[in-house]
Amino acid sequence: MTPWPSADSPTVPSRRANHPRRCQPSDDRAAIAIIAGEPGIGKTRLVHELLTTMPAETVALVGQAEPGSLSRPYEVLLDAIDGHPEVDKEQLAALTDAERSPVERLHTGLAILADLIGDSPAVIFFEDLHWADSESAALFERIADQHGPRLLIGTYRPDEVTRRQPVAGLLARMERRHAVTHVRLNRLTPAQTAALLAAATGAPAPLRAATALHHRTGGNPFFLEELLRALPGYDLEALVEQPLPWSLADVLRRQVDDLDPISHRIVEAATVLGHRIPFDLLADVTGASEDELIAVLRNLVTRGVLVESGEDEFAFRHALVREAIGDQMLSRQRRRLHEAALDALLSGGASDPAMVAHHARGAGRYEDMIAAARRGTARYLSIGSAYQALQLAEMGLDEVPDDTDLLAAAARAAWLAGLLDDALRYGRRWRDLAGSTTDRAESLYLLVRIAWESRATDEMRALTHDIGTLIAQLPPGADQARAMTAIAQSAYLRDDLDAALLWSDRALALADEFDLPAVRLAALLEKGATLSERPQTAADGREILSALVDEAEKAGEWVLAARALNALVHGEPPTSPAEHAETLERMRVNAERAGFESLAVATYFQGRARLALRAGDLCAAIAALKEGREQDRSYRRRGRWADYHGGFLAGLYLEAGELDQVEQPWRSNEQTHDLISAALHIGLPAHRLDQMATAHSTPTYGTPTGHSSTPSSQRRAASTPRHWPATCPSPRPTSSRRRPAPPYASAPPAVCSRTTGARRPPSRWKRPRPCWPSGVAGGWPSSPRSAPNWAWRRSTRRPPSPARPP
């Protein structure tokens, strides 16, 4: 495992929204920062990282309060000056002399600090103020009144502050008398957890492993770090299933070790109930009276073991506490509690199939579990919870691995969640076990899409051939119409627009003949998207897509609605920025309803970047792509989702003239050669194109890290033109398939200057435009595969997306 990175590392998850501005010591009164957060959230780490950035002449004094410090006056100051032999021994004796008056001892403490600091800038850090004695709290307040270049920092745990503790009054007085920077550190988000895992292991984290570890640790950085440190040698996917290290489990169980027997019995029952603990279900399982249960739960909430997560619903504050308690229970004990919970749920007509499936599996009642898994998977898919649907489908498949309904749901859910490997595995098994032509047609329809997103072109062709064979064997009807729609989709994705129109029209004819509304909507999507590719039919295509959106939303076909909106927003742009933004947001809402991860996140941020470009704001475009990339960069992706934003971001950096920023996005992208087309598109001068083409054949800009150089990639690199003519004799021609700029983008986009903050016109509006390479004069050729680096050309024309998957 690689050494733990510093907070300044670009791979460390940023929580800047929760962090203070960096408080540098001022020349007048002390600057004050109060940092709050639960244990293990990173309060101490944040301050220590700040200290590493301070100038060498800065004096740093760090003192920590300990449990029981309330009875030891000036405990925090004594800890801070420990190890400083220059402290006057007489002053130290006076500080600890209980016979002296409180005022005298306070002034002695201030004098000790003044002697240590002198006129130097200083950072004074009082850690864990919730345990601090009243004298240390008073000293903290008086330091805040001092003048000079000082930064005073205090940390505390809000859940451990009561009115009887000195810190409660201290916080109120500081707020009234001083300008205080308050910081509340929250738990890591799933994306930040993935970034931390990537930083710790030196490689992107598998999405499922990162998600599971996030749920297991609750996004607490300390718990996550302890798991990584205690179990070296395990990859992240194996780490998910490993038991807690004894040291961490012991720390967690201390929170409940001193509970009375009744409370202990109730907390053990709560452990078995799961992440959500309904009050009524807990009462049924434990047999406790309402008053008794309220008293116990109030105590557990006060201790910080549980939190009230909703009306009459509780949850463990830390999932690992639940895990540590559950590990000590007997298997028979857990099974009896699961049986009691399952009986209570079934007798009450439970509406949560996931909870029923959880307890049915724990009770060993597998028929109930499989039935609940089927119901729950369908329900979660219908509300856009794709990842939860996948987990429930897999629970059922553990018992019935050949169930085609569960395989179909698992394949769809994994695809929507962006888990292409899982989607491909389940989709292939669904196809192989399909007992009806309907199932086979549906499975092939999905597999074509998965193959496209996985960049498996050969498999895509083979699947399309299989669909064609199937159509010949099917009678006219729903199955044949669905299969025709699948071929139309495949043809569209492969730029065979004539075939796409032919097959979509055939599917529409059958849909009208046999009254197949779902097939009709799918075929209309393929037809509308295909027509919108050609200038002479683009208006007709947009009209079809616009009408389709409303119909699909009314029918609850959120995937189709999102794909249609994506085609609209990335085709010929809307007439106004407001309409453009509204369409983009509507696409995101529909994608989120479907649980369509790629459209809801990656494609959405590319849409925002293109909206900013069309409005003439290159800085905002770069910011949008960086935000989208930040949410996704630490996950291990494959196919078209591997660093989805890398090539586009590299092109924007080129246009901004920030060549020092270009290399990393370029090298991380799967198709590094596409940058040449990016440079050509934005009008870099010929000698820079020459340099980039030459550099591409060297190790510096060769195969990206972690990817082997395949023969196909070598052929693509070799086909890149090495020399370009210096200038074009006429303005760059417009391809018959390029979209015109929107009417509101009349001005050239402004370029950010990261050093001065100034805005300057971009280079492409000043430099002579390079000529198109041989074979492209007069526009991009009609066949995209005859154009150099056509993948980038497509992504700059409009982002490859699930309307046409990237």
Describe the structure.
56% of the residues lie in helices and 6% in strands. It contains 37 helices and twelve strands. Helix 12 (261-273) packs across helix 15 (319-327), helix 22 (437-453) packs antiparallel against helix 23 and helix 24 packs parallel to helix 26. The protein is globular. Residues 1-27, 666-674, 697-751 and 753-806 have low confidence and may be disordered.
Q: Any chance you could write out the topology, listing elements then pairs?
A:
Elements: E1 31-36, H1 43-52, E2 59-64, H2 75-81, H3 89-96, H4 102-117, E3 122-127, H5 134-144, E4 150-156, H6 166-177, E5 180-184, H7 190-201, E6 205-206, H8 207-217, H9 221-230, H10 236-239, H11 246-253, H12 261-273, E7 277-278, H13 279-286, H14 290-303, E8 306-310, E9 313-316, H15 319-327, H16 331-347, H17 353-363, H18 366-382, H19 386-397, H20 404-416, H21 420-433, H22 437-453, H23 457-473, H24 478-493, H25 497-514, H26 517-531, H27 538-555, H28 558-570, H29 577-594, H30 597-614, H31 618-632, E10 635-636, H32 646-656, H33 663-668, H34 674-682, H35 686-696, H36 711-718, E11 751-752, E12 759-760, H37 790-797
Parallel strand pairs: 1-4, 1-5, 2-3, 3-4, 6-10
Antiparallel strand pairs: 7-9, 8-9, 11-12
